[in-house]
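TL;DR need structure tokens for one chain.
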Amino acid sequence: TTTTTTTTTTTTTTTTTEDRGKLPDYMKGDYRLESSERYDEFLSELGVNWFVRQLVTRMTPVQRIRQEGRKVNIETVTAFTTTQTSFELDTPYKDRMGADEDMESITYLEGDKLLRFRSPTSDSGFDQDINEVREFKEDGRLMEL
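>> reply
TL;DR here they are.
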């Protein structure tokens, strides 16, 4: 007579999930533009006129990323203007592009990336989605947009 014994081991791992509504500390701070590639082509595809593109591509903006509670604020400061976007992660919101163009937007956190997806409304003047990926490297000392 042969006896077969089967043993099953079940392991349970408990992990702590970070608060999806909070940015990691290394993503918050001030980021000054050091270089850009193909930004003029991007603006051209959006229909931005040549003169405005010449001004914009010569600026060295600073992006200030802050968070109070669940509200994330991204402020872009140049010598000529300051723009600001406020939102909560994973929550749809209206985002202003240009003077009066509102776009349906949502921003997610995915690892070391802050992903913003924007879809034009029918009256926005834009005919394509405009998406952004901010990737934070070197413990937040570098942000690629």
